[in-house]
Sequence to fold (346 residues):
Amino acid sequence: MSDKIVKGINITKEYNGVAVVKNIDFWVKKNQFLTILGPSGCGKTTTLRMIAGFERPTSGTIYFEGNDITDTPPYLRQINTVFQKYALFPHMNIYENVAFGLRIKKNSEKEIASKVSKILELVNLSGFENRKINSLSGGQQQRIAIARALVNEPKVLLLDEPLGALDLKLRKEMQLELKNMQKELGITFVYVTHDQEEALTMSDKIIIMNHGEIQQIGSPTDIYNEPENRFVADFIGESNIYDGIMIKDFLVRFADLDFVCVDSGFGDETLVDVVIRPEDVKLLGPGEGQLNGIVQSVVFKGVHYEMMIKESSREWMVHSTDKVDEGVTVGIKIDPDDIHIMEKEA
Fold:
């Protein structure tokens, strides 16, 4: 049996003749934490809603454990959803909110009590059963929304930007909590966000979308270190991106110089995009690197300094824990394995 619990084939979704999701293929493995990442309007939430059954694809097929569920209504899918607006019932206490889905299924009161108790313990809210929703913090409400979804024992949990309303510190705490929860439960999470750091922190696999199309699918490490196109390189983290020419395998020309690199297979004398992450640029004394530049600006970012270096007609963004003052001339050194080559976009 395939380990792909959810699969979409040739999925397109149109509204009034305009395609917001364009003929995409995707899959989610069992017990995987998959994140659909992209800017606002890229089609990620629409894709999630089609998996949930709230939207029907204009064309294409969605499979669950090998069975076609394209026309299956949401309540018959073993899939639950947590929304950004938690949609908790303010007139019910915590216990009744969490128990709601179990009552719809007509579970016995004994079974409901047992399941609610276990799930509240999992989300660290034991003893909150009689509390009202409006007495909870944002993070606690988020946990209740997750508990209400998980108590129904779905095989897949869909999360649509559930941390968007939280402050930064709480959001970072909940990222780790959600990942630990997913590991402990051993169920599949499909998570939608526009936050790159969130995706890199939590995911086993990331799908990056833009303009209704999938740009790249891969692990966080692959997505960050080996972006497949200029959009991915620019969207995930910070990047220096320059026009280049692949002279031959393992040799690329950019910034008016030839650099040894670790990439091959692009062909000789091929136009390419060259990506260098700011943390991979090494600053040395003048004349000690391949290039020289002058520090234009220095901004302290908490963990590192972000410096803009002017070199010829180009600007380089550099992240370093060592500060170099504005106006100082520096050498710029790029090692071969810090140069990432991408096919030139048409």
In short: The chain is about 25% helix and 35% strand.
